[in-house]
């Protein structure tokens, strides 16, 4: 089995999974607007690391552990708490008075942005289930028949995820100069409400 088809499939999966503007995407947009490209890129690196980890766990069959109701509920509720915390933090920024887009006192280093992305992405254990299903389909299509093909697909997933977040960060940077303080507060508000909403959905799915 050639590695290239497996890598290409992983690239497409990683990109398409990251493409919808979910909580991590909202955090990425907010981070770029407030702290520049490197923070957005760091968010992408964090999301990439967890996607590759969860994809590897899915490949190893760990996704079946989510069939255990107690474990799935506990992980889901823990993830919801993390999402709500991140959303509330963004809302606090939205309701503070701002005089300029690069505000003092809110500078976030890329390493801190990376940690935030790790926590927020890992907060959704259902991602393991998704990657388990994705790799089951890949196995059925004979894309992961060898160890090298499996590794190639995992690397492709990481490349696809990072490609999307890099594209998103560059796009936001191109428009960053036109953002006023009020518009930035709107982004904070949207990100906060959006992430809290995703946390609520995660909690509902966990106890439902």
Automatic annotation (TrEMBL):
The chain crosses the membrane at residues 6-29, 36-57, 69-88, 153-175, 187-207. InterPro entries: LeuE-type (IPR001123). Pfam families: LysE. Keywords: Cell membrane, Membrane, Transmembrane, Transmembrane helix. It is a multi-pass membrane protein. It is found in: Cell membrane. It comes from the Bacteria. This is LysE family translocator. The lineage of its organism: Bacteria, Bacillati, Actinomycetota, Actinomycetes, Kitasatosporales.
């Amino acid at each position: 089995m050639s590695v290239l088809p497996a890598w290409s499939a992983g690239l497409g999966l990683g990109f398409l999974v990251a493409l919808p503007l979910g909580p991590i995407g909202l955090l990425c947009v907010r981070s770029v607007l407030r702290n520049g490209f490197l923070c957005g890129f760091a968010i992408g690196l964090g999301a990439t690391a967890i996607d590759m980890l969860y994809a590897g766990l899915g490949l190893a069959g760990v996704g079946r552990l989510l069939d255990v109701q107690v474990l799935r509920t506990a992980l889901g509720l823990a993830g919801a708490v993390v999402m709500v915390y991140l959303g509330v933090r963004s809302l606090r920024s939205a309701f503070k008075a701002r005089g300029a887009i690069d505000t003092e006192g809110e500078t976030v280093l890329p390493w801190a942005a990376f940690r935030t992305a790790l926590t927020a992405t890992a907060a959704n254990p259902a991602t393991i289930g998704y990657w388990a299903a994705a790799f089951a389909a890949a196995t059925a299509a004979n894309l992961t028949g060898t160890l090298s093909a499996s590794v190639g697909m995992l690397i492709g997933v990481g490349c696809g995820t990072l490609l999307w977040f890099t594209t998103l960060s560059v796009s936001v940077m191109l428009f960053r100069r036109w953002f006023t303080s009020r518009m930035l507060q709107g982004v904070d508000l949207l990100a906060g409400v959006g992430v809290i909403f995703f946390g609520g959905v995660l909690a509902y799915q966990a106890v439902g």
